[in-house]
Automatic annotation (TrEMBL):
<keyword id="KW-0479">Metal-binding</keyword>
<keyword id="KW-0028">Amino-acid biosynthesis</keyword>
<dbReference type="InterPro" id="IPR005106">
    <property type="entry name" value="Asp/hSer_DH_NAD-bd"/>
</dbReference>
<keyword id="KW-0791">Threonine biosynthesis</keyword>
<keyword id="KW-0521">NADP</keyword>
<dbReference type="Pfam" id="PF00742">
    <property type="entry name" value="Homoserine_dh"/>
</dbReference>
<feature type="domain" description="ACT">
    <location>
        <begin position="356"/>
        <end position="430"/>
    </location>
</feature>
<keyword id="KW-0915">Sodium</keyword>
<keyword id="KW-0560">Oxidoreductase</keyword>
<comment type="similarity">
    <text>Belongs to the homoserine dehydrogenase family.</text>
</comment>
<dbReference type="InterPro" id="IPR036291">
    <property type="entry name" value="NAD(P)-bd_dom_sf"/>
</dbReference>
<dbReference type="InterPro" id="IPR045865">
    <property type="entry name" value="ACT-like_dom_sf"/>
</dbReference>
<keyword id="KW-0486">Methionine biosynthesis</keyword>
<dbReference type="Pfam" id="PF01842">
    <property type="entry name" value="ACT"/>
</dbReference>
<keyword id="KW-0520">NAD</keyword>
<feature type="binding site">
    <location>
        <begin position="16"/>
        <end position="23"/>
    </location>
    <ligand>
        <name>NADP(+)</name>
    </ligand>
</feature>
<dbReference type="GO" id="GO:0009088">
    <property type="term" value="P:threonine biosynthetic process"/>
</dbReference>
Length: 432
C-alpha cells in the first residue's frame, strides 16, 4: 500500500545544463532513486533537460529528455523543481526569475549569479512562496550555506574564513611540499583538470571573492556583493616566500576572510601566512575548508571536496531533496532571505592586518634605521626583522609588522619606494 502511494506521488524536475555538474546530478538521481523515494516520500523524476545542442552525443543520457526550448519547460505545470547548473549570469538569471514567477522552485550551483543578484532572486522566491536554494554555490560538496542559515542560526557569528578555491590551494600545496614554482604548479593543476584554460578567476582570487560575498551575507545577515570584496591573487607568491613561511613555522594559503566588527563588515580574499597550528593550515591539495567563529558554538570547521562532478552534485542533491520534502509537507518558502540588517562595508584601507614584507636594500649602515623611521612616521610597528642573503652591495630584509591599517602601510611603502637605498619591495603578504 505504502509502495503504491509513493509511486503515485511523483515530483518532476527539469535540469538546465548538462555539463560536469549537470551530469553528476543526473547520475546521482538515478543512483539514489530508491533511497530518495523513501527519504522524500515521493519518486523524483528528471522530466526535461535543457541543452544548447540536441545534436551532441551524450552517452548514458536518455535523449528523449533533452530539449533546447526553455519555454517548453517553463510552460509545463507538471515540472515543480528547476535545477540550474549552466553557470554564468545570463540567461541563467532570466530563466530563474521566470521559473520563480511561474511558481516553480529553484536549486542552483551558480555562485556568480548568487553573489551578484542574490537579493533579487530571493525576493522573487519569497513573493512566489517558492524555495530558492544554492548550497552548491559555495565550496562544492561541503555543507556551509545550510549550517550558516539553520544549524548555527542561534549564534552571533563574528568570523568566517576559508579556503574556498581548490585550484589555488593545490598550487600552493605543490609550491610548499614539492618546491615547485608558481608556473610549474599551475601547469600541473591545468594538466590534472583543476585549473581552467584561462585560470584568471582562480589565481586572481575572483572565484573565492564571489563565494566569500555569499557566505558573509548569510553569516552576518547583511547584504555583501562581489564588488564589496577586496581581491588579491597568488601570482606574486615565490619560492622565497614559501621558504620563509617554512622558517616561520607557517604555510601560505589563499583565504577568504570576513569579519563582523563594530565598525562594519571587513571582507577580502588574499594570500596569508597561517601558523601551522591553525586548523586551516592542514588543508591540502584541492580540498576546501571553512572556519566559523560564533558566540555560542565557538570554533567550527567544515572540510571536504570543494569542486568536481559528484561533490558539487552532492550539494545540489541535498537542496533538491530539501525542496521535495517541503513540497510533500506544503511548507515551501520557509527560509528566504536572511539579510535583515544593513551593516556598512568597511573601506579596506581601514582594515587592520599584520604584514610580512620582503625587500632588497643596499647593504650599508643606516638602512634599517631609515626604514624604522619611515614606518614610525606612518604608525607602522615592527614586530620582527630578519636579514639574509647579504651580498657585498645588497641585502634581503624581511620585516613582520604588528597589526596596522592598510592605508598606513600603503603610505609607508610609497615613501620607501622613493628612497635610494631601498632597491625593491619584493613581497607583501598578510599574516593571520
Amino acid at each position: 500500500m505504502e509502495e503504491n502511494k509513493i509511486k503515485e506521488n511523483k515530483i518532476k524536475v527539469a535540469l538546465l545544463g548538462l555539463g560536469t555538474v549537470g551530469t553528476g546530478v543526473y547520475k546521482l538521481i538515478h543512483r539514489r532513486g530508491d533511497v530518495m523515494e523513501r527519504t522524500i516520500g515521493a519518486e523524483l523524476e528528471i522530466f526535461r533537460i535543457l541543452v544548447h545542442s540536441l545534436k551532441k552525443e551524450r552517452p548514458g543520457i536518455d535523449a528523449s529528455l533533452l530539449t533546447d526550448n526553455w519555454q517548453e519547460i517553463l510552460a509545463d505545470d507538471e515540472i515543480q523543481i528547476v535545477i540550474e547548473v549552466m553557470g554564468g549570469i545570463e540567461p541563467a538569471r532570466t530563466m530563474i526569475l521566470d521559473a520563480l514567477h511561474a511558481g516553480k522552485h529553484v536549486v542552483t550551483a551558480n555562485k556568480d549569479l548568487v553573489a551578484e543578484y542574490g537579493k533579487e532572486l530571493l525576493d522573487a522566491a519569497e513573493a512566489g512562496k517558492c524555495d530558492f536554494l544554492f548550497e552548491a554555490a559555495v565550496a562544492g560538496g561541503i555543507p556551509i550555506i545550510r549550517p550558516l542559515k539553520q544549524c548555527l542560526a542561534g549564534n552571533e557569528i563574528s568570523e568566517v574564513i576559508g579556503i574556498v578555491n581548490g585550484t589555488t590551494n593545490y598550487i600552493l600545496t605543490k609550491m610548499f611540499e614539492d618546491n615547485m614554482s608558481f608556473e610549474e604548479a599551475l601547469a600541473k593543476a591545468t594538466e590534472l583538470g583543476y585549473a581552467e584554460a584561462d585560470p584568471t578567476a582562480d589565481v586572481e582570487g575572483l572565484d573565492a571573492g564571489r563565494k566569500v560575498a555569499i557566505m558573509a551575507s548569510i553569516a552576518f545577515h547583511s547584504r555583501v556583493v562581489f564588488k564589496d570584496v577586496y581581491t588579491e591573487g597568488i601570482t606574486k607568491i615565490t619560492s622565497k616566500d614559501i621558504a620563509y613561511a617554512k622558517e616561520f613555522d607557517s604555510v601560505i594559503k589563499l583565504l577568504g576572510v570576513a569579519h563582523n566588527t563594530e565598525n562594519g563588515i571587513e571582507v577580502g580574499v588574499y594570500p596569508m601566512l597561517l601558523n601551522k597550528d591553525h586548523p586551516l593550515a592542514s588543508v591540502r591539495d584541492s580540498f576546501n575548508a571553512v572556519f566559523v567563529h560564533g558566540d555560542a558554538v565557538d570554533d567550527a570547521m567544515f572540510y571536504g571536496r570543494g569542486a568536481g562532478e559528484l561533490p558539487t552534485a552532492s550539494a545540489v542533491m541535498g537542496d533538491i531533496i530539501d525542496v521535495a520534502r517541503d513540497i510533500q509537507y506544503h511548507c515551501n518558502g520557509r527560509i528566504s532571505c536572511t539579510c535583515y540588517k544593513e551593516l556598512p562595508i568597511k573601506d579596506f584601507d581601514d582594515v587592520k592586518n599584520k604584514f610580512f614584507l620582503r625587500m632588497q636594500v643596499k647593504n650599508q649602515p643606516g638602512v634599517l634605521a631609515c626604514i624604522a623611521k619611515v614606518f614610525g612616521d606612518h604608525k607602522v610597528s615592527i614586530a620582527r626583522v630578519v636579514q639574509k642573503h647579504a651580498k657585498e652591495n645588497e641585502a634581503e630584509l624581511v620585516i613582520v609588522t604588528d597589526k596596522v591599517k592598510e592605508y598606513h602601510l600603503k603610505d609607508a611603502l610609497g615613501e620607501l619606494r622613493g628612497i635610494d637605498s631601498i632597491l625593491d619591495i619584493s613581497s607583501l603578504i598578510r599574516e593571520y
